[in-house]
Every structure is written in C-alpha cells, then in structure tokens.
Amino acid sequence: MSEAVKRFAKSFIRLVWRLGVYFAVLIAALRLFSVAYGRAMHGLDMHFAQSPAVKPAEGVGLGQARLLLAAVLAWLITAYLGRDRLGPILPLRASAAAHLLQGMLWGLAGVAATLGAIACFGGYRVSGIALSGAALAYYLPLWLAVAVVNGLAENLAIMGYPLFRLAGDTGWVPACLLVAALFALAHLGNPGENPLGIAQVFLIGMIFATTIWLTGNLWLSVGIHAGIVLAEDLIFSVPDSGAVYTGHLLISRLAGPAWLSGGDAGPEGSVLALPVFALMFVLLWFVYRRRSPRPT
Predict the structure, then answer these.
(1) Are the CB atoms for 199 and 274 separated by under 8 Å?
(2) Residue 295: inside a domain, yes or no?
(3) For residue 126, what are the domain limits?
(4) Which of 8, 101, 211, 227 is the most exposed place for a label (fewest CB within 10 A)?
C-alpha cells in the first residue's frame, strides 16, 4: 500500500470517527434534554395553547433551545477529544452583529420576493391583521427570539463542527454539498413537505454553507435563517417547512396549485422559490466573496 493511500485511509477513518462521535453526542444530548424538559413541564403542569394543526411558537422556541444546547455540547466534546483547531465558528466580535442583521434582511427579502411572485399569479392572499395590541406586543419579541435561536441551533448543529471538519479534510465545495444534503434530509420528516420543498431546503442549505465559507463563521448564515423564519412565521404568516405555528401577524392563505403556492409546505414548496433563492445565492457570492482560512 502506497504512502498516499495510507494517508488517505488514516484521514478518512479519523474524519468518520470524529463525525460519528459528534452526532452520537448530539442525538444523545438532545434526547436527554427533551426528556428532562418533558418531565419538568409535566411536573409544573404547564402546557402551551395549540390545536391539532397549529403548533405553539413557545414550544418550537424551547425545542430549538434544546437543540442549541446539544449542538454546543457535541461541538465542545468532539473538538476536545479530537484535538481540533477549527477556528472561530461563532466569534464574538464587531462584525458578528452586522452579519447577523444583514443576514436577517437577506432572509426577509428572499421570502418577500418569493411571496410577491406567488401573489402576482394569485397564489398568496391577505385578508386582514391577526395580531394587535397586547397579542402583538407578546408575539413580536417572542418570534424575534425564536427566529434567532432557530438559526443558531440548526446552523450550529449541521453547519458548525460538521462543516468545518469536513472542509478541513475534503475541501469546501464537497463539504458544502454534503451538509446541504444533510440539512435537507433533516427536513424530510416535516408534515406537509413535498419534493420541491426539499429541493428548496437543499438550496437554502447551500446558501448557508457557502456564506460560512465566504465569511469564515456562522453569523451571516444564522441571520439568513432567522430572517426566513421571521418572514414566514410572523410577517407573511404562511406555513414553514410544512408546519404552522401560533402568532401569525396576518390573516393570509396560499391558494391555487401546490406547484405555484407551495401548498402545505409553504412558499419554499413553490416552483417560484427556486429562481429567487438561486439569484440570492449568486448575489451573496459576489457581495461576500472572500475565502476564509482553511480549517486545520
């Protein structure tokens, strides 16, 4: 066996071992936190208002908080055991807030453009305001917090340690493709999703991964994710990856064939979403194209 083959085999085994440990810790920690959360809620006799078709916004926020804690734990444990030096995945510096805010505006713009195109063909209609007064004062800050926690949790869990570790061994292009596929795979179980919606989730995953490559950290991708959540779940009040939550700002509905409106999957299931987010991908590339240092 040549030295090159031996080095490749050793590197591959080390990569598989690290990712195996990471996802094992992530899943175990998430299950442990979920069991503890369920018992605490039962013990306190606390329940959030919901219906069979609508999930509570508070519940999804707490669920994403559990995922965030599990992702941080898995990242720290795996990096310690593997003696990884991956660089600043979530650096606390001046550009962090700027990239987070910029990302939120990108995410909001993407959903707004998609729904604007759908509305031009009669697929999205608004008939009134659903929130005002005390309800608005409650749900507006709640959804802002949920959107940011959602972006942090899902992006860190899939686009954090796994992406940086893969990029260090395979290069950024294969790593981005792999984690985007994993991101889409994680959404397969969502009720109401459709093949077009999953394809759109893959494209969004590529956007997240690529912005991480270009900026060197997660903050811009977290902001884009948070902006998409805020736009769908609060501002434009449509299904989000096949799920509907409490706290919609508008009384709105998606109408017409599913290929146009997205149907139960929401706007990401619309054929019009693909060109909008493909254009966003191109624009982000030209705006932020700056190679980050290769992780080691």
Answers:
(1) yes
(2) no
(3) 3-288
(4) 8
